[in-house]
Amino acid sequence: MEVVKFNKKIYSLEAVKKAIEEFKNLAEFKIKDSGAYLEVGIDKIDHDYHGVLKDEFSNYVLGVMS
Amino acid sequence: MLDNKDNNFKSKIKAEDKIIEFKINTKIYPLTAIYQAAYLFLDKVYVFLDGDPEKEIAVIFKGKDASFAKATEAEDLEKIAGEFHNELLNQLLREKIGDTNAKIREYIVSAALYNAVPNEVDKLLQEVEEEDWQEDPLGIAKTWSSAAPSGAMGDKENKEK
Fold first, then answer.
1. Do the beta carbons of residue A10 and residue B53 sit within 8 Å?
2. Residue ranges of the domains in chain A?
3. Least Cα separation, residue A19 to chain B (angstroms)
4. Options 3.30.70, 3.30.450, 1.10.443, 3.40.50; CATH of A2-65
5. Angstrom distances, CA of residue B159 to CA of B118, B147, B148, B149
6. ipTM
7. Which domains are delineated in chain B?
8. pTM (2 decimals)?
9. Which of B23, B24, B50 is the mutation pick for testing A, counting most A CBs within 10 A?
10. Could you give the CA distance from residue B53 to residue B32 in angstroms, rounded to a whole number?
11. pLDDT 10s digits, B42-86
């Protein structure tokens, strides 16, 4: 399972949730609150996107924030 | 990891992972400007932000495979980081101009909206314009003779005779 940690002072929970909604068909996502960070666990990633999904997901969250 | 201290901005490059990391002072560049600048680079690199928005933001760029030839990865990353700093300045200037012109912008928009809403005088004028003045439902414009029944004039004339 891959994990992305989003700083809560920079990334909002709404943006992360919106990104998960968009990416839900490509993997399984779990959000966990770990103090200053929102930890997003990414599992069962679609084979076609295995190498890039985590980074593309992070980019999408940042895009929503902007 | 390579510490690049020759540049005006300090950056760390991990060439093997195609990653460059540098820090932005948020007292100079606000977080909003960093968001906007980062947004413009999402198609070129993977962008990740971390740190404390009240002090310093760490910007991490990771090269996308298609956009980086192996031999020039480090140079490309540095070039993109430099472009990012330029874009930060651009966004900062946009924000400053936006703040400076905020009042006049609000005035122009409110004036435009006010003129777009028809007021009472405009409504009355429009009603008058729409009225057909040639219609005469009460027969006011007709002369007495043309308004009278056809026999009435004849009777009067006969009586006078």
1. yes
2. 2-65
3. 15
4. 3.30.70
5. 60, 20, 16, 16
6. 0.92
7. 2-104 (3.30.1360)
8. 0.70
9. B50
10. 10
11. 999 999 999 999 999 999 999 886 555 554 567 788 889 999 999
